Amino acid sequence: MIAMRYLRVIALLAALFACAHSWAVEPDEVLPNPVLEARARAISKELRCMVCQNESIDESQAPLARDLRLLVRRRIVAGDSDQQIINFLVSRYGEFILLKPPLSWNTLTLWGAPPALLIFGALMIIVVERRRNAGRSASATADLTAEEEARLAQILHGDNAT
To answer: How many other C-beta atoms are found inside a 10 Å radius of the C-beta of residue 57?
Structure first.
């Protein structure tokens, strides 16, 4: 009985936290036209919160994110296209405001560094393993005495009658 009550509380809390990101857009920000509001939400999901930096402005509760959401909505109501709004914000804040910046000379390091580091790491593992294996085979005979080497040579050549 008590366990069932705890499970209900946990389920209720999980449901509340699952939709927590939708709390970022406050009711006074929502546009009355559902089509324009859907555009605003789509644009807001593509823009990085400059305070949180790992969230879109649609999910962030930071005051700057709220200001940017309101700016997006004002520009939509003014008749700007999605691309005009994004271009305006990029000109104001730089490409950093985009959650998925386009591939260009400025962002080449951003896009190229992860694959380059992955390839470099794989090559380093291969080199280290080859050196370790080469060192094992070389050191296997290097530590033998002259008598042990003679005995090993007899065994390898099939003459083990001692």
So the answer is: 29
